[in-house]
Design a protein that fits this description.
Arc Repressor Mutant, subunit A, 3 strands, DNA-binding, WH_DNA-bd_sf (chains A, B), mainly alpha, 8% strand, homodimer
Chain lengths: 152, 152
DNA sequence: TTTCAACGGTTACGAATGTAACGAACAGGT
DNA sequence: ACCTGTTCGTTACATTCGTAACCGTTGAAA
């Protein structure tokens, strides 16, 4: 029974989640950093566009929980790299529809298997039962939090 | 069945962990930010010292996976706040043993129940089974990663 | 004892981030 | 047509952060 005057950080949920997320992300970041020199925000925008084909900047921000300035800068960087193009919206001249160029798509197709095998390897270190528990647990927590995920 | 040319981010482990950690941490941060204006590194150093009584700066860094400069600055800030004192090591004049002052301990004792009830409330939104799954899942992942958790 | 690599901790400086303000475009009402 | 408020996206500025360099100290080897 835990004494009531101390907070054991090792068992404290925010602390645990942070350490895990940091550690896993950092590890995976090597993959796209070494390969293409992408930053984390760049990778996220990139991967979001790869998955969804075409999106506006704000949509990317909402979807990947990134601040809009982060997205803005990531988009510029990817554009400069010729991996991304902007297409004006005929109906609304404020928004731009972003999508990957041919080169961007090529890089994406090359990254997908790497990402998948990274995940597979990581999860493979767990037993089937533990893996199940982890994924289900995350799912439940996620669904509980969906409401509070807004940026501001 | 997932097609092999796309990476569904919503199911991608690093992505999921990040969103959850961010969201939970951000939410909890309100507690110590609103109350005392602590930053995240400050809170972590503070909570670590509260739990362990006395520690060196490097030890805190290792334990809480923070960069040593972060720790250094957090320590200065807490010292200025009169929540923390440094005691020289009689045997090694490079290291300092850090601990909370009386005022720091008072603040800590005040924070502990808040942290616990935050966690309890969050986990309370899950069913017993899901909670079990989450905690076990995190535990397994954690133990798989312990080796790779070094900072550099 | 002198030398030298390694360590604890701080700091300078450049990179990354968020807040706030902004310009341009839209939508609604008058 | 003209306000008024809101939205999309960018940018200026201040803050936070990490890399690298640094200082003083230690221990061990020559």
């Amino acid at each position: 029974m835990a004494s009531d005057d101390t907070l054991p950080l090792e068992e404290f949920l925010p602390y645990r989640l942070n350490r895990l997320a940091e550690s896993v992300s950092r590890e995976f970041a090597k993959t796209y950093r070494d390969r293409h020199g992408l930053t984390r925000p760049e990778w996220r925008t990139f991967a979001t566009l790869g998955q969804y084909g075409s999106m506006t900047a704000t949509a990317i921000g909402v979807h990947s929980a990134m601040h809009k300035t982060k997205v803005s800068r990531a988009v510029s960087a990817l554009e400069e790299r010729k991996w991304l193009t902007r297409k004006p919206d005929p109906a609304d001249r404020r928004t731009e529809h972003l999508s990957l160029t041919k080169a961007g798509l090529a890089a994406y197709r090359e990254m997908v298997p790497l990402a998948k095998s990274f995940e597979k390897e990581l999860l493979g270190k767990l037993g089937a039962k533990e893996r199940e528990a982890l994924l289900n647990g995350l799912q439940s927590l996620q669904s509980v939090l969906t409401v509070e995920l807004s940026e501001d």
